[in-house]
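User: Hey, my collaborator sent me this sequence without any context and asked if I could get a structure. I don't really work with proteins. Can you help?
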Amino acid sequence: MTLITCQNASFAYEGNTVVSNLNFEVCRGDYLCIVGENGSGKSTLVKGLLRLKAPQSGRILMGDDLHADEIGYLPQQTAAQKDFPASAYEVVLSGRMGARGISPFYSKADKHAAEDNIQRLGIENLRNRCYRELSGGQQQRVLLARALCATKKLLLLDEPVAGLDPVVTQELYHLIADINQNEGLTIMVVSHDIHSAVKYASHILHLENTQAFFGSSADYAQSSIGKRFIGVDETKQPETKLPEGKQTAHV
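Assistant: No problem. I've predicted the 3D structure and written it out in structure-token form, which is a compact way to encode the shape of the chain:
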């Protein structure tokens, strides 16, 4: 079942095109990693997926009765957000705000979902601690639990390991992969970490202000752009021709 279909989409700011010619699909159970250098259009695409920015041309379609406000979103944190004076439980529970509708109060179902996701991520010991007193890795687990409260279909994570040490980074990657593989939740991750993207993701979308590549991680690793960013010396390894349509020409 296709959750997201991007058809010839382009996005612009003040009339200047930021990213163009986007054509890809995200299906139920996929783990898609969106990669590219700074300014390549990754953040702009995220805004488009969340319906915070309309395409300049083309369109983004959502299937399987998915709505933008049902995407569990973990954004990059600002310094002010890291210093938020609330308990970890309150932060997790706030993930249910979209499901709360016009009610000013959280329901029993909302509170049950928060408790379930706290246990799901093994952060019961953090439940009553102040969020701003937590380590970076602990905060990201809390925010991941919050995002899980908002969805049963799709998680969109924007640089989830930024600023974390290598050990905590790998722990978080393993946790995300486990959620995808063992629970079947669809994952989209924006990342600068090409090596981890190829290791964990099922599909790669590489942006260079246009769609430079979309396909499986295995095909990406064998493509010329993949080898360039992964760091493989193409003079020592023969080029593998990709199936037609896997790599798109630069514009």
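In plain terms: Residues 194 and 230 are 6 Å apart (CA to CA). You can pass these tokens on to your collaborator as they are.
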